[in-house]
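To illustrate the input format used throughout this study, we show a single complete record. The first block contains the structure-token representation of the backbone; no residue identities are included at this stage. The design step must infer an amino acid for every position from geometry alone.
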């Protein structure tokens, strides 16, 4: 598996397995088992996914040594404070049945971000987290966090897909030494992306699926990407992207699909912030 290096020297597999919306415990556990068996070594979960325990069981069932796995979880909004991180992270470790995680992210750019970040810096210093980062932060918020704290975020996990390519934001994050990571690379199937004519035609040249073309497009930009499926055959398909390369012509064609806006919601929408603040999950 190809890896990329974060700004603190930690290497992360460039292609990870996402577990968002896999809420059934048995299905989530089996999905992690199948993903590792298929060849994934990077597993992504979050407090708000409500599947950390199941992911932990899947990790424990694997015969792959812990040090060969890269595990990410995220702090939900209600726990974004100094004490909230300290307390909820310990609960996450217990649910995952791990001594440490490889990457801990602040899931959303709300609540006491700066107090939470200080707690994460301390946990990283104590060896409980190998890398710390953020998710869904606009570039200015990411830079602000970097400039006024000891540790620059190692990662920013954001929505990146052919309809929302975020080219300038990706360049700006990389200029700050912050690795971009793509969630929803397939836009969760919106706008019939899997049958998109342009992407289908590119895939046909290489005997690859639309999903494989998208994953390859992201990897060639050195963007860490999360792919999700509960079907073992799809897991294997999403991994089979290291035997072809896109041409400049292919990339220029994909660039024409960019609509320059989220396929889901704006993180600057006051109503969305209020909704997240009200979503008390007790995690």
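Output of the design step:
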């Amino acid at each position: 598996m190809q890896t990329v290096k974060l700004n603190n020297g930690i290497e992360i597999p460039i292609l990870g397995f996402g577990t968002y919306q896999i809420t059934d415990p048995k299905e989530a556990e089996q999905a992690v088992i199948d993903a590792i068996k298929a060849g994934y070594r990077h597993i992504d979960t979050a407090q708000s996914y409500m599947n950390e325990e199941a992911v932990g069981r899947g990790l424990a069932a694997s015969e792959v040594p812990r040090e060969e796995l890269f595990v990410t979880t995220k702090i939900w909004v209600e726990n974004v404070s100094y004490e909230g991180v300290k307390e909820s992270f310990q609960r996450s470790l217990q649910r995952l049945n791990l001594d440490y995680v490889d990457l801990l992210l602040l899931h959303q750019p709300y609540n006491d971000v700066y107090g939470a970040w200080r707690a994460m810096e301390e946990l990283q210093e104590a060896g409980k987290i190998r890398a710390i980062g953020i998710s869904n932060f606009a570039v200015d918020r990411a830079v602000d966090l970097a400039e006024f704290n000891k540790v620059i975020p190692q990662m920013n996990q954001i929505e990146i897909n052919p309809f929302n390519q975020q080219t300038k934001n990706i360049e700006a994050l990389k200029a700050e030494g912050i690795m971009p990571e793509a969630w929803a690379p397939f836009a969760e199937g919106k706008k019939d992306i899997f049958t998109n004519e342009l992407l289908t035609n590119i895939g046909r040249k290489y005997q690859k699926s639309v999903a494989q073309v998208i994953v390859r497009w992201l990897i060639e930009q050195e963007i860490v990407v999360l792919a999700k499926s509960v079907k073992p055959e799809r897991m294997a398909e999403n991994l089979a992207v290291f035997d072809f390369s896109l041409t400049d012509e292919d990339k220029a064609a994909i660039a024409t699909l960019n609509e320059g806006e989220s396929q889901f919601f704006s993180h600057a929408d006051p109503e969305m912030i209020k909704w997240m603040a009200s979503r008390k999950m007790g995690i």
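Structural context for interpreting the output: The longest strand covers residues 129-135. Strands lie at 3-5, 11-13, 15-18, 42-44, 70-75, 101-106, 129-135, 155-159, 179-183, 224-227.
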